[in-house]
Amino acid sequence: MRMSAILTTLVGLAVAGGSAYLARDYVERSKASASVSEEAELVSVLVARSDIALGQAIEAHLLETIAWPRDSVPGGVYTDRGELLAPQGQHPRRAKRAISQGELIMKSKVSEYGEKVTIGQTLGPNLRAMAIKVSAETAVGGFVTPGDSVDVVLTQGNREELRAVTILQNIRVIGVDQDADEHADTPEVARTVTVAVTPEQSQRLALAQRAGTLSLTLRNFEAAETQQLDLIKLSDILIDAPLEDKVSRTVLVRRGNTTEIQELR
């Protein structure tokens, strides 16, 4: 009886030990399988390690590799440094537009090897670059920088005939003087501001520059909508009546030995 109990106990221990071993082996294999599955669902992509300015050469120290979900990788993104960086002795690729830190390096934002990069490559389809003469007073005190959006206001006339009208709205600034870097955040007093406009808008802008003074108003990035604005005249904002209407007209009236002044109405 005792021998039977001992054998039963030994068999139970062996079964328990085997079950524990099989369970541990299953868990370890499941973890390994999950790890392989997760790795298979990710792909390495290239991003900017720091800000890259328009026209700047693409070099190795400006890049870093991160893991990206394979199913959500956008088309045209660089995944291989060898494809992006120039071979020995060849001119490098350059940024065709400003690339922010952490941004994916897209083929549409990078030139061919040795290709010249100009501000025209930052323009969208059917857009033109056009410069506007400005000063500190007409360019928001120098706070307009590349990448901002502005409205353009025309002021013309003299004295009582002075009038103003907004001729263009939500226009993108692509350059300030010779600076086209959209990462620039230091205000500077510029002499010219270059904007991206359609051919029709460029004609209106050319005429307006000859007709009077152009001023820029800086827009909020979220203020994308435009609205119809009417021309406004100086007389529309003057609340008081003209001075000549305020001058009283009087006449001296004599009645016998008395005199009095009466105002003409």
UniProtKB/TrEMBL annotation:
Keyword Nuclease (UniProt): no
InterPro entries: Pilus_assmbl_Flp-typ_CpaB, RcpC_dom, SAF, TRAM_dom
Descriptive protein name: Pilus assembly protein CpaB
Top-rank taxon: Bacteria
A Pfam short name: RcpC
Keyword annotations of the record: Transferase
Source species: Tropicimonas isoalkanivorans
Domain TRAM: 98-168
GO terms assigned for molecular function: transferase activity
